[in-house]
Amino acid sequence: MIRMFVAGLGAVLLLGSVVLFLFQPISWPAALEMDVLGLLILSSLAFERRYRGRKADGGGDWQATGERFEDPTTGELTEVRYNPATGERAYVPAEH
User: Fold this and answer.
1) Do 40 and 60 sit in the same domain of this protein?
2) Cβ atoms of 3 and 45 closer than 8 Å
């Protein structure tokens, strides 16, 4: 939901810059700023890294870090695992 809102904001900025430049060519610096901001927002979505939902299964040497916490979204006890080869962390449901 928030991802769609941010993508829409970036698209509105890009479209607004085009409209501004077409109807007020003298204001090209403002249109350029809107372009840069819109492209920055959209590119950040493209390069966003997501950690939630990754599973520490089979593909590598996962080690338990000893960190445990209650996931605020699900209320489940969650354990943190670490892959020393990649530096990746994974959040998996803890075994009781």
Assistant:
1) no
2) yes
